[in-house]
Write a structure and sequence with these properties.
This protein has helices at 18-50, 65-84, 88-99, 106-123, 161-176, 179-209, 217-283, 294-297, 304-313; strands at residues 131-135, 142-145, 149-153. α1 (18-50) crosses α6 (179-209). It has 314 residues and is mainly alpha-helical. It has a three-stranded mixed sheet, sandwiched between helices.
Length: 314
């Protein structure tokens, strides 16, 4: 198998399942939040500043042609960049460098490429649109990212060959079920709103800390009024992004079960169960038993015990 992909995604049997469809819906919500709070505000400010002093209308409304003229190219360019994150170009320039991925060494390739080929043969899909990578991190982990990258960390290479095949099949399941696409878009489309939230929270906390230095009733009134104006969008953004994050965590956990089911469906049920049992022995399951505990709600993965139980029950 060549280390660089030679094909396209055609005929890969990709199918957006429940977790991916739900994630895309949340991603669209993140797009709307960023569009309204960030790009809408930028367009409004630019339109207000550019408005002639004597021009009728006073306030810049959403339907104002100048507002739309400023907002439309911002949204188009920002959305188009999100599309680029799902391409092989982004794999090379963004995901692989950012996550420390590299081509396998000759020794690593000698062992991993035959395992890789067996997984794709069993799945019945072309391997040409996918790329095998490794990282030098010592953790027992693997991950799927971007357009078709599957990366094995050094720590996971200590597993047996059948277990490694099951791990590769699980990560392939994330690509086939389109989980990686929704994850990449969620990061990008939520970024402007998250950056604005950090800025607003910094301003809010700074104003609260310095409130004691304000003297005079008039100054205090103006100060409190401005603080309220900052706190309203801050609280709104915090609640909206917090709700989106909780939904994405829930869907991430569902996606892990879907990827496990994909690996089991192409014949790796026992091997994946053994791999997860090995990881359970290494990491344990530190999450509290309560389903609604903060630790569980914020986790991107179900517990190993839950994943093993799901595989055994299927």
């Amino acid at each position: 198998m060549p280390l660089e992909r030679t094909g396209t995604k055609g005929g890969q049997g990709k199918d957006a399942t429940a977790a991916a469809i739900g994630s895309f819906a949340v991603v669209f919500g993140l797009w709307l939040i960023s569009a309204a709070f960030v790009f809408g505000s930028i367009a409004w400010i630019v339109a207000a500043v550019a408005k002639e002093p004597g021009e009728p209308g006073g306030w810049v409304l959403i339907g104002d042609p100048l507002f739309v003229t400023v907002l439309a190219p911002l949204l188009i360019a920002w959305t188009a960049v999100g599309g680029f994150l799902l391409t092989g170009w982004a794999d090379r320039r963004v995901w692989r460098p950012r996550l420390g991925c590299r081509d396998p060494s000759p020794v690593e390739a000698g062992r991993l490429v035959p395992l890789w080929d067996r997984v794709f043969d069993r799945a019945g899909i072309s391997r040409d649109a996918y790329l095998l990578q490794v990282s030098d991190r010592p953790v027992q982990n693997a991950f799927a990212v971007g357009d078709g990258v599957i990366t094995l960390d050094q720590g996971i290479l200590g597993m047996t060959d059948p277990e490694l095949q099951a791990i590769i099949a699980h990560e392939l399941g994330h690509h086939v079920r389109r989980h990686t696409a929704s994850n990449a878009l969620g990061l990008w489309f939520g970024l402007p709103a998250r950056a604005l939230l950090v800025a607003l929270m910094s301003i809010s906390f700074g104003m609260i800390r310095s409130a004691g230095s304000i003297r005079g009733c008039g100054c205090s009134f103006v100060y409190v009024g401005f603080l309220v104006l900052v706190l309203i969008p801050t609280v709104a953004l915090y609640l909206l992004l917090g709700g989106a994050d909780l939904l994405l965590r829930l869907l991430d956990r569902r996606a892990e079960l879907e990827a496990d089911a994909y690996a089991a469906g192409i014949g790796y049920r026992q091997e994946l169960t053994r791999a997860l049992s090995s990881l359970l022995e290494i990491y344990g399951d530190p999450e509290p038993a309560a389903t609604l505990s903060p630790t569980r709600l914020n986790s991107t993965h179900p517990s190993f015990a839950d994943r093993i139980a799901a595989l055994e029950a299927a």
